[in-house]
Amino acid sequence: MPRLCSFLVIAFVLLTAVLSCPLSAQENPYFVAYDHNLEEPGNLEIEYFSTFGTQRGGNNFHSYWTEFEYGVKAWWTTEFYLDAQTTFDDSTVYSGFKWENRFRVLKHEHWMNPVLYVEYQDTNGTDKTLKEVVGHDVEADFLAPNAEARDEHAREIELKLILSSNTRGWNFSENIIAEKKLSAEPWEFGYALAASRPLSLVGSAKRCSFCKQNFVAGVEMYGGLGDRHSFGLKDTSHYLAPAVAWNLPSGWTLRLSPGFGLNDNSHKFLLRWGISREIAGFGEMVRHVFGGKS
Amino acid sequence: MKPAYSFFLASAALVATSISVAHPQSKSNENKNAEVYAELGKAPEKARNRANPMENDSDSIAAGRLLFEDHCAECHGETAEGGKGRKKGPSLRVPEVQNATPGTLFWLLTNGVVRKGMPVWSRLPEPQRWQLVRYLKSLGVAQSSVAESKP
Predict the structure, then answer these.
(1) CATH 2.40.320.10 fits A2-289, yes or no
(2) Residue A284, helix vs strand vs coil
(3) What is the value of pTM for the model shown?
(4) CB contact, 8 Å: B29 with chain A?
């Protein structure tokens, strides 16, 4: 079943991408941090991401997820994720799904722009996407074999306050994260910080794949901050990850980010990569399918 | 797996509902356009008076045209005379826009008109937003707009 599910998702992604009207994107290179730039209304962005991670005392892994990001309004973006992972010398498993919503709070652009983030996730213990690191998440949590970890179920609510600024070509983003399992466990906290800038701020007068303006370089730092009973840096993991995005004129965006664990609780090395494509007017296409008027 | 699939279906239904309510047609496009044009008048004086630093750059119109095709034509149409379909953005070749100062257009691009569907474009670096403004101003008022404004 997971194979069929993956096949359907990949087939849908490829079909939509090939048949759709592409839109040249201007994406930041972040994998973990969020900025305040929301999806344009009516557009769908389909994204595929991978993370290769090293594991001390266990098998290395490759986790991957597909995101469907839709701009409902200029101030509201909704996103649906499907997660899976392969642990080497073990197995490939479906890890679960996530559904997030981001809401822009202020009408105009300010030096700092808050966005509220609400996510519901239903994942099992095999989730190794490391999309957010919270509480006392440490490398040793990933040691359990898939057969054992998949029996552990977690339904969680995650809240983020995204603060982000665009200034002089730079983007600076700060995310404050609070996550709670829908059981009696305490709130867990985390953070993500990021900065990025295009290699050139001026647009080229000709279409080109290798123009400096198409490359955005940046860095992310993220980690856990303990929980309600033990807030702080003790027994937490932290990462630093340079990242680069290449926004192609054809509408595709490629991202690459090597990440490095900053303490003994962190995975030593994470390599992330991703590919995405924005589809203009997806909402209108769907309305046409269901007989909506133009 | 079962709860996951049911939640997937519920989410898909919610997204489909969101899509269908995303652009309610309670107001006519003319009213909506008038509200967007009215936003131009809200630009602070300091912003209105900013000069375009790309004014003397010979490539800025060509670069602005490419940026327009990538980010604006989808809603405002290939010739900037207004989009078609439900995602209809207002014409940018009307006197309200063409007579606005470069600083005013830059301010609107930077801030968007979020409640009326126009996204914030601060993600584009400042020089690119100025290139867009330069291109928009080079288009002039469309003949159709001139004809419509005559009694």
Answers:
(1) no
(2) helix
(3) 0.87
(4) no
